[in-house]
Amino acid sequence: MGFIDVITNRFKKPEGRVEGVEKVTGRGKYAAEYEVKNICYAVLVNSRIPSGRIKSIFTDKAKEVEGVIDIVTHLHKPIVPGLATEDKIKESKFGLPVFHTDKVFFKGQPIAMVIADTLEDATFAASLVEAEYEKDSFSVDFDSAKESIPLKAEAKERGNQEVFENLPFIIDEQYNIKADVHNPMEMHATIAHWTANDFLRLYDKNQGVNNVQKTFAKLFELPEKNVEVFSEFVGGGFGSGLRVWPHVLASVMAAKQVNRPVKLMLTRPQMFAGTGYRPASWQRLKIGADKDGNLLAVLHQSKNGTSKYENFNDGITRVTRLIYKLPNLKTEAAIVPLNLSTPTWMRGPGDCTGVFALESAVDELSYQLKMDPVELRLKNISLEKHPDSGLPWSTHFLDEGLKKGAKMIGWEARKPNPKSITDGDWYIGYGMAVGMWNAGRREAKAAIIFHKDGNIVVQTAMTDIGTGTGTGMQNIAHEITGISKDKISIELGNSSLPPAPSQGGSTGLSSVSGAVYEVSNQLKLKLAEYASTINPNFKDAAFENIILSESKISLKNNSAVSVSYDELFEKNNLSEVRVEVSSKPGDEQKKYAFCSSAAHFCKVRVNKRTGKVKIEKIAVVGDGGKIINSQAAANQMSGAAVGGIGMALMEENQIDAKLGSLIANDLAGYHFAVNADAPIIEVDFIHKPDPNINPSGAKGLGEVGIIGTAPAIANAIYNAIGLRMRDLPITPDKILMALNQR
Ligand code: MOS
Question: Residue range 224-249: average pLDDT?
């Protein structure tokens, strides 16, 4: 290969992501990067106390700073009709009524906002805003908090808890997990622009443009079409973009107040207090088996932290109701109000937390039973039906995943007794766990615009948060229409496009893929219909029989029959052909239960001198139904595994209980897994389409990539050193302490 070949190859458009080149060249615009004329900047001022009331705010000094245009406070603000009264605030479900209360619920709560011509002026002036507070007592420490609110059970108790009395093997332990924070690379930011008195345009980092659109239409009592939201490129979300947070409303208020477009970008510390987090949790899990290893009874109790102004339920016990037959089951949950901002869904929400307790306990049972942990799972997984609803699973292949994963990690090398494998100062261990997720699907619309030159544009409002949705859409459109990929462009992340649900809860591709699948078929039928006005052979052609090539439409069963696009457009007097469909769940939901699953395996080394855990290899097999793009899907699974390593070993939102402050709220203080912490991660899939979930056969994958990772790691640590770590993150100090206590 010559030098020129190398160069041309290097600049060849990669097969990978449809947005790849735009992202890596910086051409793609993140929310804060749009250029809007006459823009000004808003900077939030955060409360310095965790609880109380604002007595007075002093803005005079800040106002004197050159370039300052105005300062918004709860006493000086534009009207937000949807938050005009206490009742409306409640009804809005907006959460924190930012600038609509003098109450302070947490440290870091926005209490004022400086708007200035430059970011520098606004930032400097914000530092000069002072407040006088009436301080209240507060509670930020989840572990010692007294108050808790019990939640209604999500489903009925199964069987009878008295069964425990007759079970020879019982594990009854408690598990604690610290709060984790999403920390996407791209900071949350919004450009708010009132292009008319009653027309709002937003460039905003989020995971669902239609959700943001609906929220502001409601808050400002506008028709939805008067709110336009762009979120075309998103630098990660992990759940933090599924809600409209206070800073987004703040930017919209700022733009209203000064009648200019306003840009507001959170700082990393502001993100820690402003866009949710995985709440701290406590769990008790009691599980019992008979002598043959049949898991017969479970009691799962959980608590998660929430804020003082909203009740957030993380759904921790849900997963326990999902995986195993467990004929006798009781789950209970409660929430603990704290002087912190409201938590939200984060990477495998609820299930990640719940399965850590469940899968740690099942692993512990396997040692008591002297049974291989894989075998114990295979014996107890409810493969036929959803244990709660009794509906048969549409498809469920966790058993295959377990067998495949065991091979990939080399499970036969595992020794059942801890501390059996060593290498110098390192103990080596193997662990595994399973994860499941209710596979959802929501109504989504997609459209295709077909041009005379054979190029098509596939559209949906859904935002691609980095998961590869756009690429998946291109893959499906290519597969169904036969149009080559370089002629298929994708438009998404814009509320004016055909509406779609938010991208979250592993429902993104499973919702939108159905719509793209159907609209691709509709395009073929529509073009055949137009062609039939020229050549009657196209009349009532079935879509399987229609071929779309570079410049003409033809029939598969009669290659002599064709009509050129030129003629088709001319004779029908067309400028373009547009088809749009809506695809939504139907009767299949009454007949089947749907799940995604994953089997996680890992091999770790634990250093007996330093307590350091080094993950040597992770193998994970996911069942996500049809895999539309193997590369993007595998990326999601391996990325999720890295998130799981963070959750297991590093991530922790550290809080000073005396001051009520977040004390590690930046990327120096908050540790997550980086490249050096990521081992070889081998990903495989079951690759069997689910024939019932949607026309494409794809189930979600995002969440199951992480759900079982942390317990697989903790279980491998046990296998290595014989110590059961029930509190996350498992930092070296905890391991050293445990090793030394023995
Ligand atoms: Mo997620 S927590 O499905 O963005």
Answer: 97
Q: Which residues contact 649 (CB under 8 A, 6 or more apart)?
A: 613, 673, 677, 713, 729, 730, 731
Buried b (16+ CB within 10 A) or exposed e, 330-348: bbebbbbbbbbbbbbbbbb
Give 130's strand partners.
58
What is the whole-number distance in angstroms between the Cα of residue 237 and the centre of ligand 1?
A: 7
Q: Residue 593 is which amino acid?
A: A
Q: Which atom of ligand 1 is nearest to the CA of 240?
A: 4
Alpha-carbon dihedral angle through residues 99, 269, 274, 205, given to the nearest 10 degrees: 110
Best CA proximity match to 201, nearest among 215, 187, 213: 213
Q: Could you read off the pLDDT of 590-612 as tens digits, one per residue?
A: 999 999 999 999 999 999 999 99
How far apart CA 424 and CA 225 sit, in angstroms, is 66
Residue 465 has pLDDT above 60, yes or no: yes
Q: Using one digit for the tens of pLDDT, what is the confidence trace for 333-359? A: 999 999 999 999 999 999 999 999 999
What is the pLDDT at residue 13?
52
pLDDT digits (tens, 9 = 90+) for 58-98: 999 999 999 999 999 999 999 999 999 999 999 999 999 99
Q: How far apart are CA 717 and CA 613, in angstroms?
A: 8
Closest atom, ligand 1, to C-alpha of 507: 3
**Residue 645, both tokens:** 């390593």
| Alpha-carbon gap, residue 322 to 328, rounded angstroms | 13
% of the chain beyond a pLDDT of 90: 96
Residues with CB under 6 A from ligand 1: 207, 237-239, 242, 345-347, 349, 504-505, 702-703
Q: Which of 381, 392, 506 is nearest to 441 (CA)?
A: 506
Q: Whose CA is nearest to atom 4 of ligand 1?
A: 239
Query: Sign of torsion, CA 91 93 99 104?
Result: positive
Interval between CA 313 and ligand 1 midpoint (Å): 15
Task: Give the distance (Å) from ligand 1 centre to CA of residue 163.
Answer: 37
* CA gap 597, 381 in Å, rounded: 11
Backbone dihedral angles phi then psi of residue 426, each to the nearest 5 degrees: -105, 135
**If we measure between CA atoms, which residue out of 605, 441, 456, 559 comes closest to residue 508?**
441
